[in-house]
Amino acid sequence: MSAVPQSDHTTALEVLMAKVDNLAVLPHVVFKVLEVTGDCDSPANEMEKAITIDPGFSSKVLTLSNSAFFGLPKRVTSIKEALMFLGFKSVRNLAMTVGAFDMFVGKNDEESLRRRAWWRHSVDTAVCAKWLARVSPGLNADEAYTCGLLHYLGKTLLDRFGDGSYTDCSHLIESGVSVNEAEERIFGCNHVEVAVSATRKWGFPESLVQGLRYLEPPAEDEDFHKERACTALASTIATLARKGRVADELGIPSWCFSTLQLPDERAQTIVDEGIAEITAASLSL
Predict the structure, then answer these.
(1) Main-chain phi, psi angles of 223, to 5 degrees
(2) C-alpha distances in angstroms, 59 versus 24, 79, 97, 115, 250?
């Protein structure tokens, strides 16, 4: 089994980030959409311009807009109409979804299967995170969606640019090694660190960046506790939704519930409702 040549954790991460920096990992239109939506005073026509500059990208956004999940009263044929019927924030989420998808496409069957599973989990987590943000005070639903959508970003970046094989990493995970430890053994860094570094380099809001640090509870002096907990809980529920297991079997971390001000005794109910949200979205998209 191959091992990462760099023993230094920081060096491995820096080498990977240098590779990512030299490639257009996310479409330019995604960065433009983020720039426009970062300014609360930007009019909807700025969003329209940002998306329609790429015809292929626009068509994908329209396809999702016309899915049964949104139940629009008529078929929309332009980004302007999508904005009118769905609203600024929903179209932003659709654009982010379309833009992130290409990062999860593999060059061979093995890569494609692995990345397709990651993508499905990312979308399920995004849907659940948005729902959790609505039932937990102090969270932005659209930002929670984006955190969920991008929380596996580091996996595909490791798979594409890392000095190692994610197949080897998967074998370690199957043998009982934790995901982060397996990634660190093979690549010298883990997917959470990679996602945080990449999104910070790309100028994403710090609240979103911190929301990607979902595998460990935050320290008391760290900011954006709720964003982190929302991503963690949504990711766990998304796993339950696919594996068909109950909450007790997976061991949902209690820190998520206390941070999100959700009562522990409602854990199974919250899991069931989150799974229902994921199932409804999966059937409709």
Answers:
(1) -90, 170
(2) 20, 9, 13, 23, 39
**Max CA pair span of the chain:** 58
Domain of 161, in residue numbers: 9-25+108-284
Look at the chain and report how many structural domains it folds into: 1
- Residue 154 maps to a domain: yes
| Domain-located, residue 58 | no
For residue 66, name the pLDDT band (cuts at 50, 70, 90). confident
97: tokens are 């979804």
Amino acid at 145: Y
Position 81 in a domain: no
**What's the predicted TM-score (pTM) here?**
0.77
Are 238 and 121 in contact by the 8 Å Cβ rule? The answer is: yes
Tokens 């039932």: give the residue: 135
**What sign does the CA torsion over 51, 94, 199, 226 have?**
positive
Task: Report pLDDT digits (tens) over 124-151.
Answer: 999 999 999 999 988 988 789 888 988 9
Alpha helices in 22-108 (DSSP H): 28-37, 44-52, 55-65, 79-86, 88-101
Q: CATH number for the domain including 162? A: 1.10.3210.10
162, two tokens: 């890392």
With both helix axes pointing from N to C terminus, report the angle between 267-284 and 109-135 in degrees, rounded to the nearest 10: 120
- Summarize pLDDT for 19-41 with one digit per residue, the tens: 876 655 566 677 677 777 666 55
143 domain-assigned: yes
